[in-house]
Design a protein that fits this description.
Radius of gyration: 21 Å
Number of helices: 3
Shape: rod-shaped
Distance between the termini: 25 Å
């Protein structure tokens, strides 16, 4: 189980990035919906000169990015588990 320490650490980092991206995207989108001055202070360009459209765009992009981060973490987990399963299968066939 302790064989892939760096990959497991990378999984935790990617999961953290995914959730942080989603949370900060939600906060920024809500800030854009409520008050336009926050988005101008962060130098976020307004899409179509509308804070509402900008909020929806930030919400969509942060959702897509968080899905990408979390899917990358799941892919690494899948690779680790498939390696362990193949190792067990190799042991079963080597006994015969």
């Amino acid at each position: 189980m302790n064989q892939f320490k760096m990959l497991r650490a990378m999984v935790y980092v990617l999961i953290g990035l995914g959730w942080l991206t989603l949370i900060f995207g939600l906060v920024l989108a809500i800030a854009s919906f409520i008050n336009n001055s926050w988005t101008t202070q962060l130098h976020l360009p307004l899409i179509l000169h509308s804070p509402t459209v900008t909020g929806f765009a930030v919400l969509a992009v942060s959702g897509i990015l968080s899905i990408v981060w979390l899917a990358s973490a799941e892919m690494i987990i899948l690779c680790i588990e498939s390696y362990n399963d193949l190792k067990k299968i190799r042991e079963i066939f080597s006994k015969k």
